[in-house]
Amino acid sequence: MKKFADIASARRTWAWPYVLFLVLFVVLPLLLIFYYAFTTPGGDFTIQNFVKFFHTSEAVNTLIYSMAIAFITTVICLLLGYPAAYIMATAEFKTPQVMALLFILPMWINFLLRTIATVELFNMFGLPLGEGALLFGMCYDYLPFMIYPIYNTLQKMDRSLIEAAQDLGANKANVFTKVILPLSVPGIYSGIVMVFMPTVSTFAIAELLTHNKITLFGSLIQRSFGEGGIAMWNYGAALSLIMLIIIAATSFFDQDNSHDTQKGGLL
Amino acid sequence: MTNDFIIEVNHVSKQFEDGKFALNDVSLQVKKGEFVTILGPSGCGKTTLLRCIAGFQVASSGDILLKGEDVTSTPPYKRPVNTVFQKYALFPHLNVFDNVAFGLKMKKMEEETIVRKVKAALKMANLMGYEDREVDTLSGGQQQRVAIARAIVNEPEVLLLDEPLSALDLKMRHDMQIELKELHKQLGITFIYVTHDQEEALTLSDRVVVMSEGKIQQIGTPTDIYNEPQNCFVADFIGESNILSGRMIKDRKVEFCGKVFDCIDEGFGEDVPVDVVIRPEDIYIWDKKDEGRKAKNEDDVDYEDRVPKGKFTKWYSTVQTCIFKGVHYEMRALTPDGYEFLIQDYHEYLPGTEIGMLVKPEDIQIMKKSRYIYNSFEGEVEKNGKVYFLGAEWDATEEQLAPFAVGDKVEVCVPFRFVELQDYEEEGKLSGEVAFILYKGNHYHLTVRTDNGDNIEVNTNDVWDEHDRVGITIAPEHIRLRPTGLEPLNEPE
């Protein structure tokens, strides 16, 4: 007979609360989304929800527009974030942590508050809210998610590789394009995924920064559930599933991440 | 004139921000096609010297010439040298071919030439057929070969190797040593090789540069370095040795261990303190009981055969320990007056055996003492019977202070044996770290580096370890003051 102590000390026992959590808050909702997406409000099987989406040009356009916005945001974040990460990783000054802290500091504040503050700033300077404000707000919110993965890979890079390249005749430009940049690709991948995924599904930022003038795909889903009443839940679930597939597709780009999930999977 | 040397290092010093010298006035000339090894313990500055030649570090002063051209501040990518790095530093995102081709592509060579040269380099490094392999799928030895191929494919004038074999296992290291030597012959280019492994240095090099504490201790052929070490550090670092304090009585006569020996050294002067080095394999030993006895049969030991004929000084000791080392036995023997000797011999003498010992005059290596038997510091007389030196105030006796006025500059002499070391740093007037230990047969000679960076020499019977933190005290009666600028004192130890 097993003693209580054996059961308590077994790793399996300690995993149960997490398994329960995952089932209740991850697996079950996913199954519910599947169920609603493929059923009528009456509970009969249907693919009508998807047909409706592909036949509503407004919905399809919103999806394409959301992806475009997310793409532009990601590109801007990459262009701004890479140099920042590079400067931090190669900084000569004694405390690059100070700079890292400055980047992380805004993240301590709830992003809604930050976004509202951005709105106020735009109003104060008399700048129009709209697409430009939306891109500004999204880049401001998600820039740290681009900087950190890149900073990490750059910082862990073996300095002797740079010396080896110099030794073999590479000048500064060549050292960067032939060694540093290719070696920071995993960080860039992670950064892209970490920025693109949340921006494609965002809705609150869009609503606040555009005064509801621009509808993103996330807002469309939110409206289906929030304003459409229970009758719209099936349609909303179908939209959620479509976005889930897009996000899943992006994450396949990030091969290092998929390695990690394999290694650290469920017990 | 300058064209004789491919590399000239002239009075190069490298000082770090904290003021410590990694290199302290280092000068070195290397001929074209030479295999030169820079040898020394970790932290001696050997890698810094190599990095200054490669261009990764810029010397604080002095200059470096490559083929007569000043390259002291030329960036690494413009120098006609290539480096094999300690941990290979292969590019993980490139396969073997692209790693090796990297330097040629930087020179914008034609594709055909690149392919031909890379193949030739891989062949030379015994890596044919590995072109498409990813570097992280290769073993340590193979990665090492890629690193070598990547450097030699550029046909550098000088190949710099930074402890290239340190990450390999012993067997692999021996094989690679032979291959490197072979490669050097084939290529005919200059090799500068950095290692802390004395065996590697002696096996591979035309010349060895022994370094310690940022300074060159000795430059010479492997046989010179081994047989004629110029100072205690070299003698102690290269091979095993017995190092004893002695006195040169006159030319060809030296006294140590309480006995007078014939030697072959001249020119030290008369009655001068010296250090004596005897290699453990150069000591002839025999069982005292066998003296004068003829062998009874073939298996018996013949004293006459074992001991060189001639008038040599003999002395006696008792075997303390005896360890079998494969080819020979290694014994520690103690003389009645307390000197310990390390002896290597093909015959086994069990502990407790009383043995006779003899060493031929040519095997006695005499070295000038780097410092005499006392420390000499610059000091200044202060008020209230105090004298200031080594960054602290010390009590001195009235007798010593009497000839001087307050503010006078003086030479402070403290014999090595009167410097006392304390277990706890806070018990000393100064604190420091044991930097170097030398066993002198019947006592230890320590170099203690104070926290201000000064060196104090200490003779002691206590056992300390390198890097031990110690407190330093000196009793007032052992502080001797002299006017500055006098000849060195010459006192028996």
What is the residue-averaged pLDDT of chain B?
88
Radius of gyration of chain A: 23 Å
Q: Strands of the largest sheet of chain B, in order across it?
A: 6-7-8-3-9-10
Whole-number average pLDDT of chain A? 84
Quick synopsis:
The complex is a heterodimer of chains A (267) and B (493). Chain A has helices at residues 4-9, 11-37, 48-55, 57-90, 96-104, 111-124, 131-156, 159-167, 172-183, 185-200, 204-210, 217-226, 233-251, 255-263.
Description:
The complex is a heterodimer of chains A (267) and B (493). Chain A is 77% helix and 0% strand. The radius of gyration of chain A is 23 Å and the shape is globular. Chain A has a single domain (38-263), classed as MetI-like (MetI-like fold, Orthogonal Bundle). The two termini of chain A are 24 Å apart. In chain A, helix 2 (11-37) crosses helix 13 and helix 10 runs antiparallel to helix 13 (233-251). The model of chain A is unreliable at 256-267 (pLDDT under 50). With 267 residues, chain A is mostly helical. Chain B has 493 residues and is an alpha+beta fold. Chain B has three domains: 2-233, P-loop containing nucleotide triphosphate hydrolases (Rossmann fold, 3-Layer(aba) Sandwich); 240-368, Nucleic acid-binding proteins (OB fold (Dihydrolipoamide Acetyltransferase, E2P)); 374-483, OB fold (Dihydrolipoamide Acetyltransferase, E2P), CATH 2.40.50.140. Chain B has helices at 46-54, 96-106, 111-124, 140-152, 170-187, 198-204, 222-227, 232-237, 303-306, 398-401, and strands at residues 5-15, 21-31, 35-39, 61-66, 69-70, 81-84, 158-162, 190-195, 207-212, 215-220, 242-250, 253-256, 259-262, 272-278, 283-287, 314-324, 329-334, 340-345, 354-359, 365-368, 374-381, 386-389, 392-395, 409-415, 419-422, 430-439, 444-450, 455-460, 469-474, 480-483. In chain B, the strands form six sheets. Chain B has a six-stranded mixed sheet, with helices on both faces. In chain B, helix 2 crosses helix 3 and helix 3 packs across helix 4. Chain B is globular, with a radius of gyration of 27 Å. The model of chain B has no long low-confidence stretch (mean pLDDT 88). The A-B interface holds A 158, 160-161, 163-171, 174, 178-179, 182-183, 185 and B 54-56, 75-77, 81-83, 85-87, 89-93, 102-103, 106-107, 150-151, 154.
